[in-house]
Amino acid sequence: MLKKALRTGCMLVTVAYLSACASTSNQAPQTVVLAQPLQVNYQSEVALARLGQMLNSGEYNQQQMAQLYYERGIVFDRVGLRALARFDFNRAIQMKPDFVEAYNFLGIYFVLAEEFDSAFEAFDSALELAPDYSFAYFYRGIALSYANKPELAVIDVDKYAAEAPNDPYRVIWRYLIQTEANSAEAQSQLQAAIASYQNEDWAWNIARLYVGELSPQDLINSTMDQPSDNQTLAEQLCEAYFYLAKLAQQNGEHQRARSYFKLSLANNVYDFVEHRLALLELKRYEDQ
């Protein structure tokens, strides 16, 4: 494992505070895997410069400008400049009021700011324009969950998961939100999905964690069990630590959950839903 760690540029660290903060439980992994945090790459910097020049050139009509603002917003979001991204998504909608994808992104930002009424309005606008736009159902489900409306959230994530039952992330989110709604079917549906649809996608390991087939340490180790570059490792670790945090929350181990959310953020995978929501979860802990 050490040889593989050196090849991918990651670090293996025995972290006492994770096990010490919940010493009565055997859930905590003894080893924390860390990737080299992702940095803003050259391509993103060039894209931002090029899009800025195009927006300032005066050569494009309003529809084209809306698309350019949206594309720059995507790049801003990818590098973690969320205030600038939100501004660009707003500009895109002002210039193109039927811009479905921009409404969806704006809704995500409203969720992160806990402006839930505005988030619902944005997602509803996206779905009025494109009733089959599945990502709006997903993020509206998340918004409903964080707004303490889990029964309504289940309706949206059920629809989202049903569209691609072989997608482990859809299965996992359906389980998480069903659990929040105290659904007795959550565990059985998750087990059935694993039995019926499990494929080679690494994320099925997260589903197996929630049904007890893998331990937290097994999940962390699984990120090292396949050849990968640092980008892939960072992305998987961002996800793994986030979902370990959600498991810790289910078990009432909130100090450990906070530590896992911080580890999820450590990889700088800014455009992943897990990174976004880890920030929101930590903010909520601070507010409490």
UniProtKB/TrEMBL annotation:
TPR repeats lie at residues 66-99, 100-133. Residues 1-22 form the signal peptide. It is found in: Cell membrane. It comes from the Bacteria. Its main location: membrane. Keywords: Cell membrane, Lipoprotein, Membrane, Palmitate, Repeat, Signal, TPR repeat. PROSITE patterns: TPR, TPR_REGION. Coiled coil: none annotated. Transmembrane segments: none annotated. NCBIfam families: PRK11189.1. Homodimer. May be involved in cell division. This is Lipoprotein NlpI. It comes from Agarivorans gilvus.
